[in-house]
Amino acid sequence: MTHSPTLSVENLKTHFFTRAGVVKAVDGVSFDVRPGEILGLVGESGSGKSITGFSILGLVDPPGRIVSGAVRFKDEDITKLDEDSLRGLRGNRIAMIFQDPMMTLNPVLRIDTQMVETVQAHARVSNGEALERAREALSLVGIPAPERRLKAYPHELSGGMRQRVAIAIAFINKPDLVIADEPTTALDVTIQAQILHEAQELCRKTGTAMLWITHDLAVISALADRIAVMYAGRIVETGTADEVIARPLHPYTQGLLGSVPTRNQRGTRLTQIPGMTPSLLNLGRGCAFAARCSKVLPACADEPAVAEPSPGRQVRCIRPLVEVPA
Amino acid sequence: MSAAPAVIEARGLSKRFVKRLDLAGKIAARLGSGQVEETVHAVDSVDLAIAKGEVVGLVGESGCGKSTLGRMIAGLLPATEGQVLFKGQDRATLDGRSALAARLAVQMIFQDPYASLNPRARVEAIVGEAPLVHGLTTAGDLPAYVDAMLARVGLAPEFKRRYPHQFSGGQRSRIGIARALAVKPEFLVCDEAIAALDVSIQAQVINLFMDLRRDFDLTYLFISHDLGVVQHIADRIIIMYLGRIVEMAPTVALIEQGPNHPYAQALLAEVPRLGREKRKFAPIKGEIPSPLDPPPGCHFHPRCPHATERCRIEAPALREIAPGRLSACHLNDIR
């Protein structure tokens, strides 16, 4: 890993100032994504994983705002950029894929119009060349007969096809970074596998860095190079995908992995995490997981420090969990 | 199949949804525009028997008819053809008291815990209404009855004065389960009952389903797109594709010997699993065809790597390939 990171998020805090109080949706998040790498950002609903993605692109609306921290994209802090410069980055150097492709696609425009628009918004090219790029992008994501699909409207395509078009649009300007927010959650398994396949290929081929936001540990374990687990606005554990899945260190990650049914424990009781995710409203300083944790200590009432048991492996837990060799 | 008598049996069960032509369409058709009524074969002559105490998992992708089949079995949707037998008796021929008993014995748990609860009713009304109407309890005993039901699904009795919006998703699905249990059913149809929940909450509800099965001797039809979950709790797995059952097998056999039907093989291979090693995805090609216009012959043949000429013409029958294992594939004749 000699490359400098494409994206480096440092101590990012995005808070929502509501009438009921301050919601610390993202509270001190730091991670790096290197060229060609897929980082999986895993968390349950309300963990702040999507807001992290939106914060990177400067898409947080009031009452929310980035309170502190830096988002370094190729060594430039893009939280300091004005709206025009950000516009130049979005869809060009940094692209986003959403869970619902209809959020990306305009229902009343043909696919070719939308794709040409994306190209010409960022580069001075002729219609013909833009169309040629659109055709290339569509075949890159495995769309059969791209010529015909270009002339179609979004409603004429199936869900899987639409998501492919959305991915093609994200990749059309050869971005350095793609943020994918649950892009396969609404799709069937066979279609999901196809999309995961295309995403993996694209990153490998183009050297694009990818931040893959999901709640699905099984998907991410097979797809990502590294995993960051989020809970209540903070990253509680980071490491390579293999390490996090095989030897989770944080009690939350352990609980989450135990909750997923696997083949060899059929019919047995799943280990469940008691209780539910806490409200992010007026959350205290201590470990947010303490109330549900089976290994809680009195010291958990203080803000847990980040331990680094091995290089690149981080865990936010005061209990120095002894790493058990597998 | 198993020796135990079937609680629920489906015989040649079909459901067709027809989109009738409107007036303009009818006139246009009369004038020779070639417009015809569109028919969706949501479920295509399904035979199925579920024994007492069994947990059957029904798996398939969207549009395969799994929910329609579940609703017909639960009695919420009339069948176009075929019969549903409850303990050996055709449900359509029952009347009066026995029809009511058969209806109450089969309850359904819905996918969306947000949409399946009346937002204006308190939990005590949601859970308590049906048992009171059906005389399973008296007005005097109702509070205690509701308390017991809520306690059984892991909710505190003081919650019963609240409205559904005051609960989290996991708690709401518990309310839905308590409502189904309140009429003392023998058979539960769970249609994607945990799909809307977070992973850690899913585990809680799966555990609850397994406890209830043990305590109340329940039989389940567990409908899900998530093979991982179904493998965990089901004794037997049924895989559907475009309205037809393509494979039926005991879970253990399905896992240990692998699936027989090419679609089932593909489906099982694509299920994301917690693995230590990064894997390369080798997806099956193509999209799921529209159920409006399913391919002739075997519905899976356009995507099947082993398809032959015969698969394009003749629909394969669901046949026993090993004790308790059924598959609908022409390849089994060659092997």
Provide a descriptive summary of the structure in words.
The complex is a heterodimer of chains A (326) and B (335). By secondary structure, chain A is an alpha/beta fold. Chain A has helices at 49-56, 83-89, 111-120, 127-140, 146-150, 159-171, 189-206, 217-223, 241-246, 251-259, and strands spanning 7-18, 21-33, 38-42, 64-73, 76-77, 94-97, 177-181, 209-214, 226-231, 234-240, 306-310, 313-316. Chain A has two domains: 7-93 and 177-264 and 273-316, Rossmann fold, CATH 3.40.50.300; 104-172, no CATH class. Helix content of chain A is 30%, strand content 24%. In chain A, a hairpin with a 2-residue loop joins β4 (64-73) and β5 (76-77). In chain A, α3 (111-120) packs across α4 (127-140), α4 packs across α6 and α6 (159-171) runs parallel beside α7. The relative contact order of chain A is 0.14. The model of chain A is unreliable at 322-326 (pLDDT under 50). Chain B is of the alpha/beta class and 335 residues long. Chain B has one domain (6-271, 280-333): 3-Layer(aba) Sandwich (Rossmann fold). Chain B has twelve helices and twelve strands. Chain B has an eight-stranded mixed sheet with strand order 6-7-8-3-9-10-12-11, sandwiched between helices. Chain B has a four-stranded antiparallel sheet with strand order 2-1-4-5, covered by helices on one side. In chain B, α4 (123-133) packs across α5. The mean pLDDT of chain B is 86. At the A-B interface, α7, α8, α9 and α10 of A face α7, α8, α9 and α10 of B.
